[in-house]
Design a protein that fits this description.
The protein has 102 residues and is mainly alpha-helical. It has two domains: 49 residues, no CATH class; 34 residues, no CATH class. Helices cover 25% and strands 4% of the residues. It has three helices and two strands, in the order αββαα. A two-stranded antiparallel sheet has the order 1-2. The longest helix is centred in the first third of the chain and has 12 residues. Pfam families: Peptidase_C1 (PF00112). Belongs to the peptidase C1 family.
């Protein structure tokens, strides 16, 4: 299932290493749910720019997220999750195990 083909998500953006550390993606989703009613704007309304800037927070929501769940770290669970909705995946790219996951 490729959610990009349905227009539900955009392609991967290379954000480089700009001080992001593991776990911040979870914090971002929690803040989104708590402070923005789960609303996320679209790429059309707010295109990604590779630059250090202050985010424009007043954008119309294109989709609403109601919750987040952890998926067990195995292929079967990941496939079951991705069939139902777009998902985000965080990978701790540390050590030799990364090659085993991909």
């Amino acid at each position: 299932m490729d959610w990009r083909k349905r227009g539900s998500v955009t392609g991967i953006k290379d954000q480089g290493n700009k001080g992001r550390k593991g776990g911040l993606m979870i914090v971002a989703y929690d803040l989104l749910l708590q402070n923005n009613g789960g609303g996320i704007t679209t790429e059309t309304n707010y295109p990604y720019e590779e630059a250090q800037k202050v985010c424009k927070t007043e954008q119309p929501a294109g989709v609403t997220i109601s919750d987040r769940k952890f998926v067990p770290p195995n292929k079967s669970s990941l496939l079951k999750a991705v069939v139902n909705q777009p998902i985000f995946v965080g990978i701790a790219a540390k050590g030799k195990r990364l090659g085993e996951i991909v």
